[in-house]
Amino acid sequence: MKDYDVVIIGSGIGGGSIATALAPTGARILILERGERLPREPQNWDPESVFVDLRYRSTETWYDRLGRPFRPGQYYYVGGATKMYGAAMFRLRERDFQVVEHEEGISPAWPIRYADLEPYYAEAERIFKVHGEAGLDPTEPPRSGPFPHAAVPHEPVMQWVHDGLKAQGLHPFPMPLALDLGLPGSKCIRCPTCDAFPCQVGAKSDGETCLIDPVLRHPNVTLQSTSLVKRLVTDDTGRKIVAAEVEHAGVTEQVRAPLFVLSAGAIQSAILLLRSASSKHPDGLANSSGQVGRNFMNHNCTAFMSIMPLRVNDTHLPKTLALNDYYYGGDESDRPLGNLQMLGKIMEPMLRDAVPGVPRPLRSWLGHHSVDWYVMSEDLPSPENRVRPRADGSIELLWQRTNMGPHRRFVEVARRFIKRVGFTVVLSKPFGEETPSHQCGTVRFGDDPATSCLDPYCKAWDHENLYVVDGGFFPSSAASNPALTIAAQGLRVGQQLAQRLRTS
Length: 504
Hints:
Elements: E1 6-9, H1 13-22, E2 29-32, H2 47-52, E3 62-63, E4 69-70, E5 100-102, E6 105-107, H3 114-127, E7 130-131, H4 156-166, E8 173-174, E9 177-178, H5 207-215, E10 221-224, E11 227-234, E12 241-248, E13 251-256, E14 259-262, H6 266-275, E15 300-307, E16 321-323, E17 339-342, H7 360-368, E18 370-377, E19 386-389, E20 395-398, H8 404-422, E21 425-430, E22 466-468, H9 483-503
Parallel strand pairs: 1-2, 1-14, 2-10, 3-20, 14-22
Antiparallel strand pairs: 3-4, 5-6, 7-9, 8-16, 11-12, 12-13, 15-18, 15-21, 16-17, 17-18, 19-20
């Protein structure tokens, strides 16, 4: 197998953003992806296929902290987890980069500030065609310019919800959405199968559509899918990565390069570093601090179905509204509570596991008469919350949620003001550990090599040519969707690496 100038492991939002920044340099770039391209097919929009048959979910078996096996909500495709995400593209708040006191612990400071990422947030919003409207969210950080595209308009039911929240003195705002919508030649048809479904028409701004496909137009960039990286190999000093061992088409070979970027997702990146242990690094690569695999975070999330018996919810695209009045606590608490945003439309097949004893006609009725919400609070870092490889090749996710008292309080606060909009009943169900969709924190960056794995530009303290750019670098999870922040840091790191390549 030929040598390259840069090897990027993972084609999700982190790896794709790095590739986007590096492609114009002319460097020979290889992107390795363990999955294949997710096919565009009728099953993309079929809730039976997606939620009952689990057609696109990994068939891996992981183990929880009690040793119980489960099938994780992991998706390995070109474009990474964004193939199934809900297109939400939030910036972190300015305060999220600082020390924040929560009722049950501390959210630590980041080694960078919001101002360091702001220009890259703006560029990521442009790349992902983000729709939004500035000036309506009371927690909104400063912006160097408006959103690239106008906010996605509310459909009638969502406008009614918006007005009902605003009448209570709250500040609902348009949810920032990454969609190819409302522009000449746009592909989006405002279907009800966006959140947690793959997009059959390529209208969702995911990592494949907005990052990987454009960079592959550069002749110096190569994508090799169905390629599982087994371990990273160092030189005799242990300071430099010299090769990745890659299994492809039944053959394991070494790929060599002077620069490696690991972007396999917070869990898989940490697992690969730990599996790459050697005599020089018996505890795994980038792990002199002992923090690789630790501090796993995944947000505390609860789904709501708010029921309106006399009205059918015929909304096609409900994810047009969010609310941050309680992000810092507001009038309910002097400590942060979290973010509220809309879920994609809940349909009958999605409810079978959640309410198995309810007859199918009633589940269908609930789906047609509900407005669906996502209540999200911050999960705090703890070194005891960790991922690690098992001897049989599987993964242990040893995770016990933190900060759940404030989350439960936020759930009840949200239930009250949602009911005041005009809903009769608000049903709730917490998300379980089998859905690590906002995974972060396992390879944290910082200013001190003794307590972090990476420097502020995501370079491993222990290795001169290894960068880790995915949700793993987060020192805290905040209470916002992580995708845009991963993209912004990827562009920031990529710009520095591009300068390094041009001068080398």
